């Protein structure tokens, strides 16, 4: 697979935020962001290349007592090849409940970005990931 | 107050602007969403997509101001379209070009201005995406990068109009 260095996966359904982050990372030569609007699109990208880091929007699915955060993509990432088990992952989400934080700790999530946030916050996160030598 | 020079390519610039058939048209979501995003991202009270016409600047998209146009003679964006990159005025009161400008001394009381020229592939700058604050401030390299990106998104929308018109 191609070298993962400075290649970041961004999974975010909102196109304006996604495009702004990806284009700014490219224009400032921070790295290269690969955009996915959905988990399915992200899985397709993961099948063809490796990444140095990932920033993933995590939404609550279901309603009432059955509502839960969809961590399926993160589980797939962590379950895959050894390189992905050390992949630096940040998530973007509405709220951080104790249960969610516990689930995230188990999955070695390095950063939680709470909505509403600015594109700048995501860019700073990606810049930090790209500066990290760990792949 | 220093009135901006007229660009050397003014006739071609105005022809390109008029070819878009955009002046005095209603607001459009594709531009409004960029302006709204920029206002939130930079935490500024006023953001506009400004088109610089013969004697006026007209706002295709705007947030934070009721004005839909002003005279070109007092337009800060008329200065920005002369630049290759973003024109940043950290404090208008400290800049001789703008300190006694009516838009600075009166409403909307501009103290900070950042205008990213909307430069088409033809190298003609038709207007700006501009940020305005009522207090002095600065933009760092990352913020300038974000503003350039949002400007590029506006230019992409203008190019879409241009390409449809040429088809």
Summed up:
Chain A is 41% helix and 21% strand.
Overall average pLDDT of chain A:
89
Percent strand of chain B equals 15-25%
The count of strands of chain B amounts to 6
Arithmetic mean pLDDT of chain B: 96
Strand percentage of chain A lies at: 15-25%
| Elements of chain A, N to C (H/E) | EHEHEEEHHEHEH
CATH superfamily of chain B: GAF domain
Termini distance of chain A? 13 Å
Give the strand order, joined by hyphens, for the main sheet of chain A: 2-1-3-6-7
Q: Mind telling me the CATH class of chain B?
A: Alpha Beta
Main beta-sheet strand count, sense and barrel state of chain B: 6 strands, antiparallel
Oligomer description: heterodimer
Helices of chain B, by number, come to: 5
Q: Write the CATH homologous superfamily of chain A.
A: Response regulator
Total domain modules of chain A: 1
How many distinct beta strands of chain A? 7
Detail the topology: elements first, then pairings.
The complex is a heterodimer of chains A (135) and B (167).
Chain A: E1 7-11, H1 15-27, E2 32-36, H2 39-46, E3 53-57, E4 60-61, E5 68-69, H3 72-79, H4 82-85, E6 88-93, H5 98-106, E7 111-114, H6 119-131
Helix pairs in contact in A: 1-6
Chain B: H1 10-19, H2 29-42, E1 46-52, E2 56-63, E3 69-71, H3 77-80, E4 87-89, H4 102-105, E5 112-119, E6 125-133, H5 141-166
Antiparallel strand pairs in B: 1-2, 1-6, 2-3, 4-5, 5-6
Characterization of the model:
- The complex is a heterodimer of chains A (135) and B (167).
- Chain A has 135 residues and is an alpha/beta fold.
- Chain A has one domain (7-131): Rossmann fold (3-Layer(aba) Sandwich), CATH 3.40.50.
- Helices cover 41% and strands 21% of the residues of chain A.
- Chain A has a 5-stranded parallel sheet. In chain A, strands 4-5 form a two-stranded antiparallel sheet.
- In chain A, helix 1 packs across helix 6 (119-131).
- Chain A is globular.
- The mean pLDDT of chain A is 89.
- With 167 residues, chain B is of the alpha+beta class.
- Chain B has one domain (10-166): Beta-Lactamase (2-Layer Sandwich).
- Helices cover 35% and strands 23% of the residues of chain B.
- Chain B is built from 5 helices and 6 strands, in the order ααβββαβαββα.
- A 6-stranded antiparallel sheet of chain B has the order 3-2-1-6-5-4.
- In chain B, strand 5 and strand 6 form a beta hairpin.
- In chain B, helix 2 (29-42) packs antiparallel against helix 5 (141-166).
- The radius of gyration of chain B is 15 Å and the shape is globular.
- The interface between A and B is medium-sized, with 15 and 15 residues.
């Amino acid at each position: 697979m191609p070298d993962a260095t400075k290649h970041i996966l961004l999974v975010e359904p909102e196109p304006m935020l996604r495009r702004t982050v990806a284009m700014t990372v490219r224009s400032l030569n921070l790295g290269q962001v690969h955009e996915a609007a959905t988990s399915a699109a992200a899985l397709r990208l993961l099948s063809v290349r490796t990444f140095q880091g990932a920033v993933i929007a995590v939404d609550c699915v279901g309603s009432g007592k059955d509502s839960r955060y969809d961590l399926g993509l993160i589980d797939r990432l962590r379950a895959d090849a050894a390189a992905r088990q050390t992949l630096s992952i940040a998530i973007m989400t509405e709220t951080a409940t104790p249960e969610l934080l516990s689930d995230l700790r188990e999955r070695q999530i390095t950063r939680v970005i709470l909505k509403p946030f600015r594109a700048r916050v995501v860019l700073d996160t990606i810049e930090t990931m790209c500066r990290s030598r760990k792949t | 107050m220093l009135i901006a020079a007229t660009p050397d390519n003014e006739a071609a610039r105005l022809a390109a602007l008029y070819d878009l058939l955009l002046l005095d048209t209603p607001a459009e979501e594709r531009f409004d969403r960029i302006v709204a995003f920029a206002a939130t991202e930079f935490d500024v009270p006023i953001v506009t997509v400004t088109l610089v016409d013969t004697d006026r600047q007209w706002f295709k998209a705007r947030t934070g101001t009721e004005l839909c146009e002003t005279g070109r003679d007092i337009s800060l964006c008329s200065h920005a379209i002369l630049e290759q990159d973003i024109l940043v005025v950290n404090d208008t009161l400290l800049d001789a070009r703008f300190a006694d400008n009516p838009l600075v001394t009166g409403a909307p009381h501009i103290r900070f201005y950042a205008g990213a020229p909307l430069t088409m592939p033809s190298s003609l700058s038709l207007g700006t995406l501009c940020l305005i604050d009522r207090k002095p401030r600065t933009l760092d390299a990352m913020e300038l990068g974000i503003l350039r990106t949002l400007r590029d998104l506006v230019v992409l929308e203008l190019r879409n109009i241009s390409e449809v018109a040429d088809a």
